[in-house]
Amino acid sequence: MDLGPKPIDSMDIRSRAYASEMIAMSLFVRWGYDVLQPFTPTEYDFVVYKNGTYKRVQVKSTESGKFKLVQSGNKRPYDDTSFDYLCAVEMPFVWVIPWSFVQNKTSVSSKVLEKKFLEYRFNLTDPKTYNPI
Prior knowledge:
Blueprint: H1 13-30, E1 34-36, E2 46-50, E3 53-61, E4 66-68, E5 85-90, E6 93-98, E7 107-109, H2 110-116, E8 121-123
């Protein structure tokens, strides 16, 4: 078995989803948050906690430039009670966007995120990204 940087097969969506969740969780840990993972199926992927406040986070990833904002499996759209923040991962960028900014959408493109949500984008290759918030 060879170790090292190899792209995840674009057909292996589950591996890409898990990797993206770990990337998002590691950012929150670096920013000084506690990260909590549910043991049962939920509409969110994890919870972050800091200064007495809990926030639910949903992570979506893409290699095609389009993030589907529907629940995997049943294709139902999320509602305003599903989670608080969307983390959209398209390497090497992660957008951390309040859900209220994209609710009522079933998808969003990285071009739209670049245009409308640049202040919410974090570049994983920039050391400043990892400074505590």
